[in-house]
């Protein structure tokens, strides 16, 4: 059900929500947080709302959309309330702000926040340079941006690095969860050798590729080269150099990757490019500071950028052994959870290492110096 309230006020919107709550009963109160979406009014607004609706099925919430309209128009607030099948497992309040009100989104949001519930702010497209200092960002415990959706993704990532504040995160980082899980799981298999160097290859404007290189540099304390791929989308391949041979994870088609390492048959791994709704749902699972993301941002300054585009095979290599079972995303996530369990401390002997990984962070079987967030 969609209810339009043209030329209205936040008081009238709140009164209508109370009326709907009385009609719907206690189920209207089953919300765990308030998700505030900040964007310019346009065709992409519905895409953000659809992603929030899908994520709300895992995290029932009140979604408030601040859609900024033409600033030269007369000051006006047009509201729309969506409940039931048009709002997933949430209730959606769309606020279209025009004229002077376009810059007063925080004032319009405050009366509609759920009492005693955390607030998460999400900028699905263009985001402020300092989300924590934005008026709406100050209201939120978590602030989610997406550097991949901005005009210059790499520059946007550099801005995130410069102005990081506890509570900030980026969906370009969330898209790495499966990659980090598979890489951590691959190094949990023998031989337990030190990784001496790494190369991460991907599109030139892929912020996720940069973040994966920064994560490896921060966690392994090794030289990491960030190369540009001649073909492929997003992250294309990762190569980890070890004494016995390289560990290679290649995904040329953006769907299925192939993991090869010495002494093991080649294995196919599910590495489908993740949808925004899946990344958003993952980010809503926690409201504390994203310390692994902060550490990865610090590691961006340690990567070495290659100049020559790297050619990657258009098709994944054929597994060495016929009938080798594929590794699904669920298997990778399960391996990551196992690796996240506390491991015995290193006994100091050569070749002995530890591993740590999870839905938020994954490490390798290599000693890591203690640092912030670890």
Structure notes:
The structure is a single chain. The chain is an alpha/beta fold. It folds into two domains: 2-145, 3-Layer(aba) Sandwich (Rossmann fold); 177-340, Dihydrodipicolinate Reductase, domain 2 (2-Layer Sandwich), CATH 3.30.360. The chain is 27% helix and 21% strand. The strands form two sheets. It has an eight-stranded mixed beta sheet with strand order 1-4-5-3-2-6-7-8, sandwiched between helices. A seven-stranded mixed beta sheet has the order 14-13-12-11-9-10-15, with helices on one face. The protein is elongated. The model is unreliable at 318-330 and 332-374 (pLDDT under 50).
Short description:
This protein is of the alpha/beta class and 374 residues long. The protein has ten helices and 15 strands.
Could you name the ranges where pLDDT drops below 50 across 5 or more consecutive residues? 318-330, 332-374
| Terminal residue distance | 47 Å
What does the main sheet amount to?
8 strands, mixed
Structural class comes to: alpha/beta
Architecture blueprint of SSEs:
Blueprint: E1 2-5, H1 10-24, E2 33-40, H2 44-56, E3 61-68, E4 76-82, E5 91-98, H3 105-109, E6 119-122, E7 142-145, H4 153-162, E8 168-170, H5 171-174, H6 177-186, E9 197-202, H7 207-220, E10 224-228, E11 235-241, E12 247-250, E13 256-260, E14 267-270, H8 276-283, H9 291-299, E15 304-305, H10 329-340
Helix pairs in contact: 2-8, 6-10, 7-9
